[in-house]
Design a protein that fits this description.
By secondary structure, this protein is mainly α. It has helices at about 10-15, 15-30, 35-55, 60-75, 100-115, 120-135, 140-150, 155-170, 175-190, 195-210, 215-225, 235-245; strands at about 75-80, 95.
Length: about 250
């Protein structure tokens, strides 16, 4: 790596991490909650790899390599004939069970949080650690981890993702009031990194599950007014049509 000094503008123009973060936000705008639920994880993989490759300092490089390995394990294939070596069949890791792959991923993420807490990738590692704990059924630990990430100002994008993960968990487990509180907080947060329209769709679904259809409809209508050009407006319209055409819910 060369030692030529660049201006801040030149660094941002050439830095793939910065570009990837921009693409992440644009991907949210284009694909909505589908990305938040799944594909955003693959995008974060790119961020972790770039951190490991591009940022100065041996510890940051080591942490970035561990993060990339952990995320690959998190998304690894499950095959009954997999061996103890996840790379025995080639460059794509395979595990015998979901539990095995999540345990392997958790080991990498936990090591980063423990040993590289000041690294530039530690926030992403903590976020993935929380997701992995959820996958392993370690709910109490997962909630604590994601709450810590969500409450941190170290990385606003990852903090917002952690809050979405918490809201999704609460909604899926029937704790709609907890989910509602988190999503309403994201809507009010002027520095939130998740598109408001995407949050509004998830909040409307939570409100509907609580029997608050009128509130859900208002949330969706307000969201449509936020950005007439949003790629999520089609999904917002579909949600509105479904609610407005459905049976009346007693409040």
């Amino acid at each position: 790596m060369g030692t030529t000094k660049l201006t801040r503008k030149e660094i941002l123009a050439e830095d793939p991490v910065h570009a990837t973060m921009i693409h992440l936000i644009e991907a949210f705008r284009t694909h909505g909650m589908k990305i938040i639920a799944g594909s955003a994880l693959a995008i974060l993989l790119a961020i972790g790899i770039y951190f490991g490759i591009l940022y100065l300092g041996r510890r940051d490089v080591q942490a970035g390599q561990m993060l990339g390995k952990g995320i690959l394990f998190f998304h690894a294939l499950v095959a009954p004939d997999a061996t103890d070596d996840p790379y025995a069949k080639g460059g794509t890791p395979e595990f015998r069970t979901d539990t095995a792959k999540y345990e392997a991923a958790k080991k990498e993420f936990a090591a980063i949080v423990s040993d590289y807490g000041h690294s530039g990738v530690s926030a992403i590692a903590s976020y993935y650690l929380g997701l992995t704990q959820l996958k392993l059924g370690q709910t109490k630990e997962a909630i604590q981890t994601l709450e810590e990430v969500g409450g941190s100002s170290k990385d606003r994008t990852v903090a917002s993702l952690a809050k979405v993960a918490l809201a999704t968990h609460y909604a899926e487990t029937g704790n709609n009031q907890q989910a509602q509180g988190i999503l309403e907080g994201l809507l009010k947060d002027p520095q939130g990194q998740v598109p408001k329209q995407a949050v509004s769709i998830q909040l409307a679904r939570v409100l509907t599950a609580e029997g608050k259809r009128d509130e859900a409809i208002k949330i969706l209508r307000d969201a449509k007014d936020l950005d007439p050009e949003s790629a999520l407006n089609g999904q917002l319209s579909a949600e509105l049509n479904r609610l407005e055409g459905g049976p009346t819910v007693n409040q």
